[in-house]
């Protein structure tokens, strides 16, 4: 039969070279027979009984190149394992004609033939030959005559030739008409085969496919390279019990959810936790990116994209995306502007990490089809390097102390080649794509990355699509989908394609076999059943007998599975997910055992052949490694293998009870910074249950764990203290409860969320962890999240902080935030997308390291924050440096910044911030710097900011700073500027006299168009100053409509807060009868003798308290000395006096605020029964031997109440309450036995 007659209908004749020259060889001639295909030994059943010698002799780079054939036998084994390629699906394979089979049989070394002919599938014919009805081409010395290609639909000679993604050639007019008639838009079926969806954008013209213009010899090399990559990527290995089966990638590929940017739980959360965050993200906030468009800039991106880093948790689909990109390129469908795609995996590069190569040699070794490519050709070609699996790398990538390389023929270490390539020193025009799990991504400096993307796996709709495609039985798929949705953990985990397959494997087995029972609801249940299903399939495969029970099933494989468990456990601690022969041997595994479990039971453990035929092993997914590690650890505990437990715990082990064992294990896991043991610990708790013990008794051994022991373990989890632990870590305690099937906390929080009187219900710490998780995962974004609204302990309030990731406004005030908590807040600001537009962290002594962590969130391009309040946070000059740098890098959103009551900020710190005011992208409208210990030196920097051409500042608060007249003079220069847009200026209590008032009046006369409100209260403007400013109010040219100058007078020119001092008088009608007055009623002492005070309705009859007679208005300051234990308080006069309820106790109701002091110093503050410890600062601790004197400052109109410790003439700030006072305040005291307090 003539070859032309045997072609598939619609396929053009075999291609000529791009330059129109006749081909001189067939594929068989260009590819002489080579060694037998390697993929058989890697995956086929034939390997199960073979003894392998995996030792690799030392061979130089040049020798390797010579030894390897010019055209390697393609291995269809994937080079990466963390993908959904292992889940089994039922797919149809298209029939192949005899001629096509014959052609493929001539191709050397291919053990996995394509389902279609390799002849010109995606390459268009050459139209650059001489015109005429025929043209000749010489093939093997025989002249063949070929007709010009005709459209398969209209049979006319095609003038506008296009190719579909499935390889058929038609004229554009016909296919467009066909689609229009079928009323199809977007995706449409091919009019020839009808089997593959294609898109209009996917049509390729002849000129598009011929975009690589180069010489004939190089073009042939590149064509062969495309053929090699196509063979390598067009099939994927499925993890079924028919070992070695191959499936077309294009048949099973589901478009994964790839987005710009990434979620920011990378360093603080286990990957399962990251999935939970990603699973609730509203897709409307993201712009999904096709893997084929990974290098295409978005409309708002200016610079070209050269280096792309793609993150994704294990098994989510990163390598599938790489394979799909490469396959589409090799088939001529996408990214044809790229001349050469160089696909490399880090697991391959690990094998040569200690050797020296040039970049050119590296290409030749890993891609022998490119051996004829010279350094000169590389320089003029557009290359794309794809480095897959950074998380598997054992290279040392050092981007600082590097050796500079610019010559592709210069030898160096593989690590140095990669760093120079990524940084653009080697082949500056080359594109680079790196994939990684999140925890390893930080090996690449952000400055080297032009685009950061994240693969988020299956959406909810894709999860259902997977199960419906997986099973032809609709009832079965519906039951599985329904069950998946009943468990939050299972539903979230199904974002990973591999876990979908695990779920499908287990539930199909349980729903279609006699081994029915309660379907798994926890992760431990699911993985226990999965282990049994896979070992049973292995047994059936090798006809090892009839199974009667799960116990017998696992007993038979006990030894090998425990060795695998040991391997999993030891390398989980090290962070390794790839293993080599020496790793297996250290755990007592020989290659034969590994071959059986990789060749038949690939769903548990995989083996792959990589470069130089060295074996690489891994678990199908990280979670399986974690599960087997937990099984091994539990086995060691129950079988008294104390050396393993002691090595893990790093301490002597004498604990024999299960509850004690679990408690010690989870404490260790909570110390992890990235949560790498979280899932391992959850599995351990789940394995303690009787149901899972019975399933895995062959592995775990006969262990009787009493219900009382299980209950003690549950109680330990509920009581667990995690003061120094990140609140993200604490949430895993709640998940451990869920794995133990204890749903009590979950149900309690559900009831709490439904209740109307939430503030009255006290929450335990474990309840706060559960609430944080549920609020964080809620589909509904909280409008406002205020920690003070929750009735819980200080520790419980800190456990709630992760909920900040799912709210628009967050008030995290006065809760003792530490660095770990600021890290959580920063991750909320960096998340994609972030919802947080208003953040108030006032009243927390954050210190410089905590501020630095927060600023990492502020500088993120994802941060949408518009209002930031850091009142009374102990900010220093260093903190301001961090803050200014962050705002300069991302200044586009923030409108309001309140840094009031940071008296360490001072002039140098403000200078850094004022430099930001002149930034063209600065959007500040409100800046509050009340009581920041600023002097006249700060005013020059402020004036410069006010007069900036891009100034947007509308409100400036400088109250209670010692600016003086000289500072106001400098500030007035900024007010005069025509660029100044200030509308509100607050200079209350700034030591301003008549001279300063004159400067202000002059400035307002020069630029009267903006300022509407001026506050000069608590100053001394004098008569002339008052006259000038009052005249301005009447001047129609001025916009000023509010002027505050009272109170005024010389007394307000005293620096500091003591100018607000007031004399207090004790109200004797309120004094408890066991409190003794002395020193002219200015000292109060607690005594045992009852004092003879007359009855009075205002007297405290139970609690040893009193109030002062003075009602506080405006700004007031006073000092007291104490001895023993006392409460220094302010209260509304309406506080209850009679009885022993909390309504009478200072600080235990909404009527009062108090500072508790002891002989050791100030201890805590309290309001409405919410106690906040005083964070000891270096200055306060150094003065611990000083006098026990405290100061109180209240600004009633501003709603601030501040407590200080007095050391000599220095005020050491302790705490500030920011609120709204609705009644007149009165000073008060509570005195403990043997204690006293005196008014100063």
TrEMBL record:
InterPro entries referenced in this protein's UniProt entry, alphabetically: B30.2/SPRY, B30.2/SPRY_sf, Butyrophylin_SPRY, ConA-like_dom_sf, Leu-rich_rpt, LRR_dom_sf, NACHT-assoc, NACHT_NTPase
Domain NACHT residues, every copy: 306-440
Domain RING-type: 151-193
Compositionally biased residues, Low complexity: 1177-1187
Domain B30.2/SPRY: 1044-1240
PANTHER family named in the record: NACHT, LRR AND CARD DOMAINS-CONTAINING (PTHR24106)
The protein, known as: NACHT domain-containing protein
Upper taxonomic lineage: Eukaryota, Metazoa, Chordata, Craniata, Vertebrata
Gene name tied to this protein: LOC109196968
């Amino acid at each position: 039969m003539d070859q032309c007659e045997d072609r598939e209908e619609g396929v053009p004749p075999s291609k000529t070279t791009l330059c129109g020259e006749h081909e001189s060889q067939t594929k068989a001639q260009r590819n002489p027979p080579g060694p037998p295909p390697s993929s058989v030994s890697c995956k086929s059943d034939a390997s199960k009984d073979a003894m392998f010698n995996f030792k690799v002799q030392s061979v130089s780079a040049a020798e390797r190149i010579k030894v390897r054939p010019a055209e390697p036998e393609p291995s269809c084994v994937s080079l990466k394992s963390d993908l959904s390629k292992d889940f089994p699906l039922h797919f149809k394979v298209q029939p192949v004609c005899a001629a096509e089979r014959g052609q493929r049989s001539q191709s050397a070394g291919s053990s996995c033939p394509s389902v279609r002919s390799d002849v010109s599938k995606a390459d268009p014919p050459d139209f650059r030959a001489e015109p005429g009805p025929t043209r000749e081409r010489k093939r093997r010395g025989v002249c063949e005559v070929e007709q010009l290609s005709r459209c398969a639909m209209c049979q006319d000679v095609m003038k506008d030739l296009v190719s579909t993604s499935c390889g058929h050639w038609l004229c554009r007019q016909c296919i467009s008409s066909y689609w229009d008639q079928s009323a199809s838009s977007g995706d449409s079926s091919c009019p020839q085969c009808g089997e593959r969806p294609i898109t209009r954008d996917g049509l390729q013209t002849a000129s598009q496919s011929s975009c690589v213009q180069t010489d004939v010899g190089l073009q042939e090399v590149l064509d062969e390279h495309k053929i090699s990559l196509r063979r390598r990527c067009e099939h994927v290995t499925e993890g079924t019990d028919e070992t070695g089966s191959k499936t077309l990638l294009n048949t099973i590929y589901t478009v994964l959810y790839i987005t710009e940017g990434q979620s920011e739980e990378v360093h603080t959360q286990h990957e399962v936790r990251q999935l939970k965050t990603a699973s609730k993200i509203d897709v409307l906030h993201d712009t999904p990116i096709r893997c084929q468009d990974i290098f295409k800039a978005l409309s708002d991106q200016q610079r070209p994209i050269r280096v792309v880093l793609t993150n994704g948790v294990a098994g989510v689909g990163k390598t599938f995306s790489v394979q799909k990109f490469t396959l589409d390129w090799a088939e001529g469908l996408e990214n044809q502007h790229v001349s050469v795609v160089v696909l490399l995996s880090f697991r391959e590069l690990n094998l040569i990490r200690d050797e020296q190569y040039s970049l050119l040699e590296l290409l030749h070794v890993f891609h022998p089809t490119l051996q004829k490519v010279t350094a000169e050709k590389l320089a003029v070609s557009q290359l794309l390097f794809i480095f897959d699996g950074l998380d598997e790398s054992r290279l040392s990538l050092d981007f600082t102390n590097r050796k500079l390389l610019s010559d592709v023929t210069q030898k160096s270490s593989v690590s140095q080649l990669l760093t120079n390539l990524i940084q653009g020193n080697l082949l500056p025009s080359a594109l680079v794509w790196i994939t990684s799990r999140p925890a390893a991504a930080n090996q690449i400096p952000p400055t080297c990355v032009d685009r950061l993307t994240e693969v988020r796996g299956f959406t909810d709709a894709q999860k259902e699509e997977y199960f419906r495609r997986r099973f032809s039985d609709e009832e079965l798929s519906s039951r599985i989908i329904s069950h998946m949705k009943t468990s939050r953990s299972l539903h979230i985990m199904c974002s990973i394609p591999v876990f979908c397959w695990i779920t499908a494997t287990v539930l199909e087995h349980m729903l279609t076999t006699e081994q029915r029972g309660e379907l798994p609801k926890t992760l431990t249940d699911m993985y226990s059943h999965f282990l049994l299903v896979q070992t049973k399939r292995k047994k059936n495969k090798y006809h090892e007998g009839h199974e009667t029970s799960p116990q017998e099933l696992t007993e038979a494989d006990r030894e090998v599975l425990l060795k695998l468990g040991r391997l999993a456990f030891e390398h989980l601690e090290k962070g390794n997910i790839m293993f080599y022969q020496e790793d297996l041997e250290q755990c007592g595994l020989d290659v034969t055992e590994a071959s059986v479990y990789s060749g038949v039971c690939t769903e548990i453990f995989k083996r792959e052949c990589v470069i130089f035929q060295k074996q690489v092993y891994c678990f199908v997914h990280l979670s399986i490694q974690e599960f087997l590690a937990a099984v091994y650890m539990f086995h060691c505990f129950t079988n008294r293998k104390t050396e393993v437990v002691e090595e893990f715990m790093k301490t002597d082990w004498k604990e024999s009870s299960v509850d004690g064992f679990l408690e010690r294990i989870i404490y260790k896991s909570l110390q992890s910074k990235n949560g790498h043991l979280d899932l391992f610990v959850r599995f351990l708790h789940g394995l303690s249950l009787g149901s899972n013990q019975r399933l895995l008794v062959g592995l775990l051994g006969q262990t009787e764990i009493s219900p009382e022991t299980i209950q003690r373990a549950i109680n330990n989890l509920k009581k667990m203290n995690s003061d120094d632990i990140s609140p993200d870590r604490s949430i895993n305690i709640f998940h451990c409860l869920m794995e133990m099937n204890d749903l009590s906390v979950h149900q309690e929080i559900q009831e709490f969320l439904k209740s109307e009187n939430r503030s009255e219900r006290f929450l335990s710490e474990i309840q706060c962890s559960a609430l944080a998780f549920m609020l964080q995962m809620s589909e509904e974004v909280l409008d406002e999240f205020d920690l003070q609204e929750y009735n819980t302990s200080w520790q419980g309030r800190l456990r709630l902080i992760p909920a900040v990731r799912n709210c628009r406004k967050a008030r995290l005030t006065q809760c003792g935030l530490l660095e770990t908590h600021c890290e959580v807040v920063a991750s909320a600001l960096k998340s994609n997308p972030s919802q947080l537009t208003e953040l108030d962290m006032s009243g927390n002594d954050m210190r410089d390291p905590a501020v630095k962590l927060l600023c990492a969130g502020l500088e993120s391009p994802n941060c949408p924050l518009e209002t930031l309040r850091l009142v009374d946070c102990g900010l220093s000059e260093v903190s301001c440096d961090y803050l200014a740098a962050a705002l300069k890098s991302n200044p586009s959103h923030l409108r309001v910044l309140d840094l009031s009551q940071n008296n360490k900020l001072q002039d140098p710190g403000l200078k850094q911030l004022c430099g930001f005011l002149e930034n063209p992208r600065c959007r500040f409208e409100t800046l509050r710097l009340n009581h920041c210990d600023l002097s006249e030196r700060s005013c020059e920097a402020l004036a410069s900011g006010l007069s900036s051409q891009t100034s947007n500042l509308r409100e400036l608060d400088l109250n209670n700073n010692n600016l003086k007249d000289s500072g106001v003079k400098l500030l007035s220069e900024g007010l005069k500027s025509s660029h100044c847009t200030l509308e509100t200026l607050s200079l209350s209590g700034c030591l301003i006299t008549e001279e300063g008032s004159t400067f202000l009046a002059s400035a307002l006369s020069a630029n009267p168009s903006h300022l509407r409100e001026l506050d000069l209260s608590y100053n001394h403007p004098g008569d002339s100053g008052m006259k000038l400013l009052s005249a301005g109010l009447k001047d129609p040219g001025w916009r000023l409509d509010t002027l505050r100058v009272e109170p005024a007078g010389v007394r307000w020119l005293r620096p500091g807060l003591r100018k607000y001092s007031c004399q207090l008088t004790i109200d004797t009608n309120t004094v408890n009868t066991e409190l003794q007055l002395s020193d002219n009623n200015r000292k109060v002492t607690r005594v045992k003798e009852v004092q003879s005070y007359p009855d009075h309705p205002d007297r405290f009859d139970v609690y040893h308290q009193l109030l002062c007679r003075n009602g506080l208005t405006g700004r007031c300051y006073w000092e007291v000395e104490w001895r023993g234990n006392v409460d220094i308080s302010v209260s509304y006069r309406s506080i209850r006096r009679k009885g022993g309820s909390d309504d009478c106790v200072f600080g235990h109701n909404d009527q009062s605020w108090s500072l508790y002091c002891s002989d050791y110093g100030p201890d805590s503050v309290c309001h409405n029964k919410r106690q906040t410890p005083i964070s000891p600062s270096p200055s306060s601790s150094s003065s611990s031997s000083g006098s026990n004197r405290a100061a109180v400052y209240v600004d009633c109109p501003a709603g601030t109440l501040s407590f200080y410790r007095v050391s000599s003439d220095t005020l050491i700030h302790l705490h500030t309450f920011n609120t709204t006072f609705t009644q007149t305040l009165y000073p008060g005291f509570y005195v403990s036995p043997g204690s006293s307090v005196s008014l100063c």
